[in-house]
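re: ur question from earlier - yeah i can do the single chain one, its not a big deal. heres the input i used so u can compare w yours
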Amino acid sequence: MSKDHEILADRLNAEPVIFRGCSSSELGMIVGLAIVIWLPFSLLLAWLLGAITMGFGIAGVGVVATVVVMATVLQRIKRGRPEGYYQQWLRIRLQSMGLYRAPWVLRSGAWDIGRMQHASLPSRNR
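and the output i got, formated as tokens:
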């Protein structure tokens, strides 16, 4: 194998795609959120049915299904967009719902300096 065709990890501009357009950090985020949601829900459901160990199986199936569905949704959101687009999109959506404060100015319209009276300019005659 010649050295001309080798891909070196230190020359990549972004994380490589692992599964359905998602990088390893994005998949880790999806898996973590899926576990936080599915494990308590499935254990409660299994406890109510009288078979607590069945809850882990339900959680496992739920986590895998959530990862496949959310990776597909993220893939559609990211398609043809620049790097980091969905992160900014999510921050703006959370701000519009009042759950997060985005670091960008998202207001459009006329701006005002807030003064009610005109300030006198200093004279230039000295």
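DSSP finds three helices and no strands in the chain. not sure if urs matches, ping me
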